[in-house]
Write a structure and sequence with these properties.
Blueprint: E1 19-23, E2 32-34, E3 43-46, E4 54-57, E5 78-82, E6 85-92, H1 99-116, E7 126-133, H2 144-154, E8 157-160, E9 163-165
Parallel strand pairs: 3-9, 6-7, 7-8
Antiparallel strand pairs: 1-2, 1-3, 4-5, 5-6
Length: about 170
């Protein structure tokens, strides 16, 4: 299946800012980066080495229909690519509830779609999936076995925190 996860009309130009954010207006439009107004940021990107980072929105940009229906697939909000790294990002702005399992499900569904497509995941050495929630910005531990299963199945490390450190 041919899906262009790493290009398209929504892909943003590369950013070298040492600190910026990813926002989601929740208005059926793609997520986007912002250098200003940190109150709107759901995820904060710390890019201390000023690497060139490309943000590609996925949800509400890359239109993927569930097989045999007209329903859209549930995907993560976007991905960051730089050097030999790919970070998938799901943004949440929820207090309590099942936001972690919902975010993990969207990340997994995106990865399953990527694995079915001809997207070259093998070209990336470092792979992470982030569930970011503005209302729960600090790192939350993940059950070790859950993290191991996620890595074995997808080759991605799973992190639950709203700050993404670029190394």
């Amino acid at each position: 299946m041919k899906i262009s996860f790493d290009s398209g009309p929504c892909q943003e130009p590369s950013v070298t800012a040492v600190r910026f954010g990813i926002c989601d207006d929740k208005n059926q439009k793609p997520a986007f980066t912002s250098m200003v107004n940190s109150d709107l940021w759901i995820a904060t990107i710390k890019n201390d080495f000023a690497k060139s980072i490309i943000f590609t929105p996925i949800d509400h940009c890359i239109r993927l229909q569930k097989e045999g229906t007209k329903d859209e697939e549930s995907t993560c909000d976007g991905m960051l690519t730089f050097d030999d790294s790919i970070f998938l990002v799901e943004l949440k702005d929820q207090g309590t509830g099942g936001w972690i399992s919902e975010a993990k499900s969207q990340l997994e569904n995106t990865l399953n779609l990527m694995l079915k497509s001809d997207f070259p995941l093998e070209k990336f050495r470092y792979k992470k999936a982030f569930a970011c929630n503005r209302k729960h910005p600090q790192f939350q531990s993940i059950d070790n076995e859950t993290n191991k299963r996620f890595f074995r199945k997808y080759g991605f490390r799973l992190d639950i925190q709203a700050e993404i450190q670029i190394k």
